[in-house]
Fold:
Amino acid sequence: MSNTEWLLCPICKNKTRIKLRYDTVLENFPLYCPKCKIETLICVKQFKALVITEPDALDAEPITR
Structure:
């Protein structure tokens, strides 16, 4: 088994510029894909990438006091 793998974009499934080792842990990492030009927030542990879906601050309703 290989010790390193390329991190794939969760949107278009192409290689990004990030290479992972088996022991790499990323939390709340802003992954930018040069092909589809989309930035995605991810968490990675043991080559498993999980997309974090949070509401954008621009889409949220303003807080009124």
